[in-house]
Amino acid sequence: MTTAPPSASRPGPGPRVRPLHLAAELTPAAGTSAAGTAAGAATAAARTAALARLAEAAALDFLTHDDSFARPGLDALAILARIAPETRSIGLVPTVTTTHTEPFHVQAAVATLDWVSRGRAGWRIAVSPTGTEARLFGRRPAPPAAELWQEAGEVAEVARKLWDSWEDDAEIRDTATGRFVDRRKLHHVDFQGSAFSVKGPSIVPRPPQGNPVTVVDATRPAARDTAAQHADVALVRAASAEEAAALRTELRQGARAHGRDPDRLRVLLSATVGPGTYEDGPGALAELIASWHGGGAIDGFHLVPEDPERDLARFTGETVNRLRARGLFRTAHEGATLRDHLGLPRPVSQYTTTGATP
Q1: Against a cut of 0.85, is the pTM above it?
Q2: Half-sphere exposure (Cβ direction) of 283: Cα atoms closer than 13 Å
């Protein structure tokens, strides 16, 4: 069933004009998968690469690729690592489940994607709430939603610590002495969470972006505090511009309460789009995005297509071009990393020091 983008009502005067951010999902809205064999996997990878190049040509900020232990399908992080060399500038954001997985391995995989993509990686944090998913691992029952998102926040926190555990200049690669790394610039994180502990340091050097971009779907109330505390990008769903603006305000206030600069949090409206989005003409969706963004309700739009081949092509060929014609969206990527696209600074390692490691 199509969830058409809601009406383009205006929430009233908003803040100064901000850059418009556009992103899209690569998997169908129903979450189906065509990969069951080696040939199917190759076909899926080729399809994903073609869609990624289409979105890259339109200069979208990033692409998401959904994933879940609750259904069969290719690993989102692995398939985006596969297509990273076939793209040059668009951000790549796989869904990564933090429940039942090892935080140390998760952060290493995301850091590797950032290296493979030369600074274009993110990760969309997700949780596994069902007993069926828990039984796949046999380690523990599925905790309540509040505990799952608390744990997800802890995984996000320790991931940042591990990414920072190598200072930027820790690698020395001194062939004359045979020294690869300056051990003084590697740091133990010594993190104790509610369900795991990590000592560190990471086995992967600090990623090109310092910290890959963290994305959280904040549609459900249980996820919002985690998004406010840890997300660089929060995805929300809303039936009106007023509702979207209220969610954006709530998330920004939450970020401030956690000691963060709310201007470093991007809130995007995530909406499922099919042919009925375009019933009022090809300019209707562009008008909705322009209205909501201009009124301060959202920082951008995350397209979830019913049929990626059909709907992403129409979005990039019609909606994006109309937004460009109004001077609201870039004609090409102006930076090299996903943080560049989002207007986010590269964070300094929290462990940067000139002294020796204990």
Answers
A1: yes
A2: 4
Furthest-apart CA pair in the chain: how many Å?
69
Q: Summarize pLDDT for 232-288 with one digit per residue, the tens.
A: 999 999 999 999 999 999 999 999 999 999 999 999 999 999 887 877 777 899 999
Locate tokens 């499922």: which residue?
272
Residue pair 63/92 in contact by the 8 Å Cβ criterion: yes
> Which pairing describes strands 266-273 and 233-236: parallel, antiparallel, or unpaired?
parallel
Q: Look up tokens 């599925």; give the residue.
A: 142
**Contact indicator for 235, 251 with CB cutoff of 8 Å:** no
Token pair for 335: 């930076």
Q: Could you tell me which of 88, 76, 77 has the C-alpha nearest to residue 27? A: 76
Residues contacting 50, CB < 8 A, separation 6+: none
CB 226 within 8 A of CB 216: yes
Question: How many Å apart are CA 322 and CA 282, to the nearest integer?
Answer: 9
Cα distance between residue 66 and residue 286, in whole Å = 25
* DSSP one-letter string for 85-113: GG-SSSEEEEEEE-SSS-HHHHHHHHHHH
**Phi, psi for 89 (deg, rounded to 5):** -135, -25
Q: Which residues contact 341 (CB under 8 A, 6 or more apart)?
A: 21, 61, 62, 91, 333, 335
Q: What are phi and psi of 92, to 5 degrees?
A: -125, 120
Q: Exposure pattern of 239-274 as b/e (b: 16+ CB <10 Å)?
A: eebebbbebbebbbebbeeeebebeebbbbbbbbbb
Measured distance CA(289)–CA(62) in Å, rounded: 17
Residues lower than pLDDT 70 in the chain? 1-17, 29-37, 353-358
